[in-house]
C-alpha cells in the first residue's frame, strides 16, 4: 500500500543557548485515500513535523518512509523529486511570488518537474485548478491584490499543480470565513475520494468529524485521539 510513514522522529532547535526538543519519538502514518487531521497547541511542532514529512527539513533522529523508502536519507535530487511528485506542502502563510500573477504562481512548480508539457498546457491546468479552488476570477490578479482567503485558494491550487499523492496542509482554514473553510473541507474530501492522502493541521473542532482519524501532537509525540472526539458529543 502506498503510504507516508514517520517513525520515531526527533527534532531539536536551539533557542539562545537552550535546546528545545520539539519532536520526541513522533510517529504517524498517512495512507493514500485517507483524510487525517492533526491538532496540537501553538508551538507544539506541527509545522516542523509537516516539513520533515515533506522533505523540507531533516530530523535529528527517526525516519520517514515513503512507500517503504527512508526519505531522510535521500540525496538533494531525490528530495526534489519527492517534493515535485509525491508530497505537496501547503504552507500556512505567504509563499506567492509577488512578481507573478495567480495563474503564473500556480503553474510554477510544474515547470520544474521535468514535465514536458508546453507552457500553454500548464496554464490551462493551472486555470482549471484555480477554478477547482474557487479562485478562477483571480486568475490574472497579482498577489498584492488578493485577500488572505483568496491567497489561500491560490496556494491550494499551486499545491495541487504537481498532482501530489500526499497533500500536507498547514492550518489551511485558519482565518477563513465559515463558507470558505467549508469549501476547503469539501475539496479535501474530494481529493481523498480520488486517492490522495490528505493531512490537515487544524484547531477547528467542528471540522474534526470529517476526518478518518484525528491525531494530536503533544509533548513531542503523536497520539490518536479519534475515539475521544467521537465520544465528546
Ligand atoms: N528554525 C527554527 N529555529 C528555532 N526554533 C524553531 C525553528 N522552527 C521552529 N522552532 C520552534 O519549534 C517549536 C515548534 O514550532 P512549530 O513547528 O512551528 O509549531 P506549531 O506549528 O505547532 O505552532 C516552536 O517553539 C518554535 O519556536
Ligand atoms: Mg505551525
UniProtKB/TrEMBL annotation:
Residues 4-229 form the ABC transporter domain. It comes from the Bacteria. Keywords: ATP-binding, Nucleotide-binding, Transport. One of its GO terms (molecular function) is ATP hydrolysis activity. This is ABC transporter domain-containing protein. Pfam families: ABC_tran. One of its GO terms (cellular component) is plasma membrane.
Amino acid at each position: 500500500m502506498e503510504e507516508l510513514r514517520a517513525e520515531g522522529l526527533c527534532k531539536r532547535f536551539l533557542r539562545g543557548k537552550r535546546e528545545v526538543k520539539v519532536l520526541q519519538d513522533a510517529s504517524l502514518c498517512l495512507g493514500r485515500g485517507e483524510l487525517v487531521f492533526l491538532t496540537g497547541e501553538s508551538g507544539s511542532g506541527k509545522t516542523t513535523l509537516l516539513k520533515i514529512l515533506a522533505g523540507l527539513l531533516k530530523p535529528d533522529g527517526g525516519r520517514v518512509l515513503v512507500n517503504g523508502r527512508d526519505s531522510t536519507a535521500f540525496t538533494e535530487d531525490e528530495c526534489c523529486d519527492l517534493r515535485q511528485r509525491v508530497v505537496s506542502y501547503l504552507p500556512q502563510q505567504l509563499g506567492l511570488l509577488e512578481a507573478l500573477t495567480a495563474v503564473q504562481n500556480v503553474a510554477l512548480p510544474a515547470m520544474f518537474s521535468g514535465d514536458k508539457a508546453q507552457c500553454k498546457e500548464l496554464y490551462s491546468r493551472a486555470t482549471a485548478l484555480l477554478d477547482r479552488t474557487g479562485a478562477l476570477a483571480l486568475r490574472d490578479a497579482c498577489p498584492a491584490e488578493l485577500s488572505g482567503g483568496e491567497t489561500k485558494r491560490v496556494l491550494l491550487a499551486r499545491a495541487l499543480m504537481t498532482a501530489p499523492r500526499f497533500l500536507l496542509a498547514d492550518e489551511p482554514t485558519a482565518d477563513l470565513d465559515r463558507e470558505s473553510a467549508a469549501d476547503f473541507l469539501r475539496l479535501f474530501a474530494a481529493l481523498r475520494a480520488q486517492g490522495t492522502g490528505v493531512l490537515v493541521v487544524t484547531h477547528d473542532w467542528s471540522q474534526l468529524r470529517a476526518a478518518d482519524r484525528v491525531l494530536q501532537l503533544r509533548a513531542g509525540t503523536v497520539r490518536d485521539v479519534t475515539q475521544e472526539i467521537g465520544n465528546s458529543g
